[in-house]
Amino acid sequence: MTYLDHAATTPMVPEALAAMTAELGRVGNPSSLHGSGRAARRVVEESRETIAAALGCRPGEVVFTGGGTDADNVALKGLYWARHREDPARRRILISAVEHHAVLDPAAWLAQQQGAVLEVLPVDSLGRLRPETLRAAIEADPASVALISVMWANNEVGTVQPIAELAAVAREFEIPLHSDAVQAIGALPVDFAASGVSAMSLTGHKLGGPLGIGALVLARGTVPVPLLHGGGQERDVHSGTLDTPSIAGFAAAVEAAVRNLDAHAATLHALRSELVAGVLAAVPDARYNGDPDDRLPGIAHFSFAGCEGDSLLMLLDARGIECSTGSACSAGVARPSHVLIAMGHDEASARSSLRFSLGHSSTESDVAQLLEALPPVVERARRAGEIAAARHNRS
Amino acid sequence: MRVLAAMSGGVDSAVAAARAVEAGHELTGVHLALAEAPDSLKGKGCCTPEDARDARRVADVLDIPFYVWDLAEQFRVDVIDNFVAEYAAGRTPNPCLRCNESIKFAAVLDRAIGLGFDAVCTGHYARLVDGPSGRELHRAVDPDKDQSYVLGVLDADQVAHALFPLGGSVKTEVRAEAAARGLTVAAKPDSHDICFIPDGDTAGFLQARLGERPGSFVDTSGAVLGAHSGAYGFTVGQRRGLRIGTPAPDGRPRYVLDVSVVDNRVTVGPAEALEVAGLTADRPRWCGPAPAGTFECRVQVRAHGEAVPAAVTAIPEGLQVAFSEPVRGVAPGQAAVLYDGTRVLGSATIAATV
Questions:
Q1: Which residue of A has its CA nearest to B78?
Q2: Catalytic residues of B
Q3: At residue B351, does pLDDT exceed 80?
């Protein structure tokens, strides 16, 4: 099996597995006042400090959530409600056109159900939101902007956004900017304080930690209205008994990911260069998508003209090579990617795409396996496309 | 063989796939997503997210790869738009037949063959028999479930690449087998209605797309009997839901005899006026070698009708059918499927009655 889908989820690193399993056998609710509770609380707080140190934020700014989607929803809905409550004129939400559904959908929901005005800002052909585009959108009516959300790096094509420049624009107008950094942590240097963003989402399982745990980093003074009401465990922004084992594993993974960042990124970069060169040599008309330079080191995304991405995925899967066509909805129906459409692809081109994503367990042999399997698979998928097109034209 | 199993999430396609696996074929399951806005179906009909999940669970149990293929756009163009256009033209289409012809055994089969599969397996009730001149399509043994009529549009090449593992079974056996195999869909109710009209309100569906086109009911002499909101909504042979207002002078039920969308008139009359001696049909499709000249066979003119004896003549534009005895309720747009005993010879689309 050749796993080339680390952007979907990546195996846990040994440090995280050890930290998590050590806690799984212990009892103690971090909110309890007795000894067991205090011991659990200590693990949680030390984990928070570890994460804060790794990300350049204060421990008090780390709010644990049930993952990236949870964090994004708290940021989008919670900050919209808080900002709108302060000033009802604030109705506009500005997001990039390449956001993950975890940002796109809550923003659309706020527009449909809560009277927000959603403005989806266009990106260039590499998938970047230009700071001047953001500035122009704000300047149309600065007082009406409730919040801005722009991802740190794109999960499909890997393009990195000029996040510090975008945050500087937002700060000029004193508007909070949230960034979904789920793909960035552990792949790029991320310094929360230096970046100037007001809120940032991350999740454990994309960086070698456990599933089901994540965090929303909230700068001081950025206080969302909670989505979940209950014990108020996390600064009253998020409720629910804290998951000590997952938090311990998450912190160990973040620490390891950031500590190993340079070496890891260099390894991934080298592997990806090999993969990209190999794919372009094997399939000369493949189109390599995204920013060629300023991108996540582990993601390689291609369009294969004349092929259905679904067909390619299925044929590769049958040969033990696992990759992705992008993001799938719950029914598993692959819609043409909004990210590629926003980058100027037509629907057919968007449907012809595959993402290969590398991670800490990837090897040269994985790349070699892919390069061996790919040419006949592309040829076969292309022929299937031609047969279907021929019948369509006949009828 | 490498077999692609179309898995709707229902019990039939689940058992069909299970039998194909057991027969030693190398299976891959696909669920066809045919609804462009599946949420609007509110859990009814076919190809909802719930059906996709059910199909996926069956694939899990069978331990076969499973994917969802999005054919919604093609389905809309080839089946739904065609359905509406046919009604608008005063004909009565059969969308299941159209789906088999242009989706399941065309778009899906083509893609499957292109991807290296040898056949497409479905849960249709029909039998495939190897005959002297190739693979033959026959009626299923369960007369209540027999779906050979809606497969009558398949040509010899399509039939050669089909697999129908349920043709020799009756439905109760299939359900029992699903339960015995531990398939979670064993007790799932059968789907009946047109899958893209889950509430069964075909008239409402058409009216939303074609609008109101008020017109008249007339009798065979041309006398106006009442008003309707669109001739396209009526089918030759229809008795229920006419709402003419004034009863027939003799008090007997009236039937739709003719639908004319050109002048928006629906002609009604007594049952015996429905009787026709024959029909002409176009778009012939043959399940084997195309016959020439005139030959005797049986012809079925609607999904749940009897096949009746007739003399069929192949003409350049299609077929001429002369029934041995007059037949009622022949609606243009429906398929005339030709049988020799249980064997399907071919089909054509009814153009007019004579």
A1: A395
A2: 99, 195
A3: yes
